[in-house]
Automatic annotation (TrEMBL):
Single GO MF annotation: endopeptidase activity
Keywords assigned by UniProt, alphabetized: Hydrolase, Membrane, Protease, Transmembrane, Transmembrane helix
Signal peptide, first to last residue: none
Transmembrane segments: 31-54, 66-89, 109-128, 148-166, 187-205, 211-227, 234-256
InterPro entries (alphabetical): Rce1/LyrA-like_dom
Listed GO biological process terms: CAAX-box protein maturation; proteolysis
Residue span(s) of domain CAAX prenyl protease 2/Lysostaphin resistance protein A-like: 155-243
Record-linked Pfam families: Rce1-like
Keyword field contains Heme: no
The protein, known as: CAAX amino terminal protease family
Length: 258
């Protein structure tokens, strides 16, 4: 029999266990929703600050390669780093508090749900673009690089961010820190899944794309839900972001039309 913090491995076993086992205890965790709100505030304020600095220096924020890289990456990385620091100062560290323990079974589940999410995202994006129109179907990062001839190094850096760095940071914040804050309140795993999915979608600050982002977030959240660890959701998020990241790379290099 598996201990409370070690749910059954495997996709089917994990699904069956959801709702039957209590949320894991969070002994030694002295942070909650306040920590998440602080991290979100740092994310938003740093993005505003970078934009303001670029504008005051006479730089076109939407045409500068430096702004595209810094404005896209720094706020998310800074917020995720703060989340890790909070768990070290006010808890047991990220491995315990953010459920970062490694498990190959979680990797397999993440791969399966990531591939499923890739298909769902593609289908949802096709339907959604037909509803809102192709002119309104571009993401915030897509709008930044659209029309900007990025150097090879910058294009590769953006690809690595979209496919790997961004997903890891976002998982630390939403299905790590926020999920942990919800668990600390004694709420159910399903409540954590629903709330993190909705907040993740809304936090991108792209109202037109919120419904699409909810679809994107569902398989990623399910990976976290059935394994109770962050590894599976990180893998699912990375797989789900691969095609958009590759497309962004090819468009920014001028290989594909925007």
């Amino acid at each position: 029999m598996n201990p409370p913090d070690e749910p059954p491995t495997g996709l089917i076993a994990g699904v069956r266990a959801v709702g039957r086992e209590p949320s894991p205890e969070r002994v030694g965790q002295r942070w909650g929703f306040g920590a998440f709100l602080l991290v979100e505030a740092v994310f938003i304020l740093s993005a505003v600050f970078i934009t303001a600095i670029a504008s005051t220096n006479g730089t076109d924020p939407f045409g500068s390669v430096a702004f595209i890289l810094i404005g896209s990456m720094v706020p998310t990385v800074l917020a995720a780093a703060l989340a890790v620091v909070i768990t070290r100062v006010r808890g047991n560290g990220p491995l315990i508090d953010l459920r970062l323990s490694w498990n190959w079974a979680d990797v397999k589940i993440g791969l399966k749900l990531g591939l499923l999410g890739m298909v769902l995202t593609y289908l949802a994006a096709v339907i959604w673009s037909r509803i809102v129109g192709t002119d309104n179907a571009t993401s915030a990062i897509g709008e930044l690089v659209d029309g900007a001839a990025l150097p090879l190094g910058a294009a590769i850096a953006m690809f690595l961010y979209v496919c790997f760095v961004g997903p890891i940071c976002e998982e630390l914040i939403y299905r790590g820190l926020l999920w942990g804050a919800i668990e600390r309140q004694g709420w159910s795993q399903w409540a954590a899944f629903v709330l993190t999915t909705l907040i993740f979608a809304a936090s991108h600050l792209e109202p037109l794309r919120t419904s699409l982002l909810i679809v994107v977030a569902l398989p990623i959240g399910i990976a976290r839900l059935i394994t109770r660890r962050l590894t599976a959701s990180v893998v699912a998020h990375v797989i789900n972001n691969f095609l958009p990241g590759l497309t962004l790379l090819l468009v920014s290099l001028g290989v594909m039309p925007g």
